[in-house]
Each structure stands twice: as structure tokens, then as C-alpha cells.
Write a sequence for this structure.
């Protein structure tokens, strides 16, 4: 199931949007402020973000700017009462993917969410099958030829991320920020340690390999 983060400080609207998307087959997590949203993103992989702009503390612009520093690909949809062109321009310049003006029509929101997910090549069922390897993100289970491969949550998240975007290079910093958190004091070398563990655990899989891109990071290549 696709995970969607809804960042909206209006409690009622947040609840309505989350409820509607849940009934449409998604799994949503609602947050009332950016700080809580960052915390949720450290603990869960999201495929799309729906965000308000005008919020206390960190506003939507700053939130989107921070997200784009660590994740260049996750779709971001702004849902705001700000209907002026400068706000829309600023949002798109920061890297958002779509913009809706409140009050939003929930059916239109659903159409836009599905369109953004299609563009990002994200399927409703979060399952990757490559040869005899199956990665089920809902169950956090990796299996090869029917036999489960034991992984930690972080190991699973990293391999799922790499195989979700084959041939795309992710820097050590990107992986660190996404799976350890922006404020972690852990060295980037920890990423190398995890990649080594993943390579060892998935060494039986001949249908893909994780390549080191010298000076940059890692990418998964499907054979």
C-alpha cells in the first residue's frame, strides 16, 4: 500500500483528507506541523507528500526546501489557500510537483495524487519482483525463491529504495539523510557498512547487483 504524508495544521481538514485517501486505498499519516512530519519521515517510507503552506513554525515553503535537499524524487503536492502567482512560482521553483488552491475538491485531489504516483512509477501495491526475488514493503519481507531473507528494517528500506529506482545513483548523504535522519551524528561510512551487509545477504540473487559509483554512492542494476 502506498504511504502518503499529509501535512496540514487545520485538524478537521487534515482528518477529512486522510480519511478520504484511506478509503481510496492509500495509507495516510496526518501531521499538524513540520517537526512532526520530519519525525514521521525518519520512521517510515512515504511515496507522496500533501502539504499546506501557511503553518506555524516551519511553513510549507521551508518544509519543501528541506525535503528537496535530501529527497529529489518524492512527489510533493501543495494544498494552500494562497492563490497568488508568486506563491505558486515559489513553490514550483523549490521543486514541488503540483499545486491546489483551497477549498480543494477531494475527487480532484485523488485524481492528482494518482497522476503524481503514476509519473513517479509508484504502484499501489508496494511490491518489487525481480526474477526470484520478491520485496514486500507492506510486510517488510524479502524472499528469494520462496525463502525469506532476514533483514533489519533499515536494510530492507535501503534495498527497496535502490531497486525502486534501478540505475539511479543515490549518494551516501542522500541515503544517510533518508534512513538515518537529517540530524544524525553517524558517519557516512555507516552507509558503506550497510551496503556490505545487504550485498552479503542478497548474494544469492543473480538478477541484480548493487554497484559502487566511485566518489558518489550506489545504484542497483538489474541484470
Amino acid at each position: 500500500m502506498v504511504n502518503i504524508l499529509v501535512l496540514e495544521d487545520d485538524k478537521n481538514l487534515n482528518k477529512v483528507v486522510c480519511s478520504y485517501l484511506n478509503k481510496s486505498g492509500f495509507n495516510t499519516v496526518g501531521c499538524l506541523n513540520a517537526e512532526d512530519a520530519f519525525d514521521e519521515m525518519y520512521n517510515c517510507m512515504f511515496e507522496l507528500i500533501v502539504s499546506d503552506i501557511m503553518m506555524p513554525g516551519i511553513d510549507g515553503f521551508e518544509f519543501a526546501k528541506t525535503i528537496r535537499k535530501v529527497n529529489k524524487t518524492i512527489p510533493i503536492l501543495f494544498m494552500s489557500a494562497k492563490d497568488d502567482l508568486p506563491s505558486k512560482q515559489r513553490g514550483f521553483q523549490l521543486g514541488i510537483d503540483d499545486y491546489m488552491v483551497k477549498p480543494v475538491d477531494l475527487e480532484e485531489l485523488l485524481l492528482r495524487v494518482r497522476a503524481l504516483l503514476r509519473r513517479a512509477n509508484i504502484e499501489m501495491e508496494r511490491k518489487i519482483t525481480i526474477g526470484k526475488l520478491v520485496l514486500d514493503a507492506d510486510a517488510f519481507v524479502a524472499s528469494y525463491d520462496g525463502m525469506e531473507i532476514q533483514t533489519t528494517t533499515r536494510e530492507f528500506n535501503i534495498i527497496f529504495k535502490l531497486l525502486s529506482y534501478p540505475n539511479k545513483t543515490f549518494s551516501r548523504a542522500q541515503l544517510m539523510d533518508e534512513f538515518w535522519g537529517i540530524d544524525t551524528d553517524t558517519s557516512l561510512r555507516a552507509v558503506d557498512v550497510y551496503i556490505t551487509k545487504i550485498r552479503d545477504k542478497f548474494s544469492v540473487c543473480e538478477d541484480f547487483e548493487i554497484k559502487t559509483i566511485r566518489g558518489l554512492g550506489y545504484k542497483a542494476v538489474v541484470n
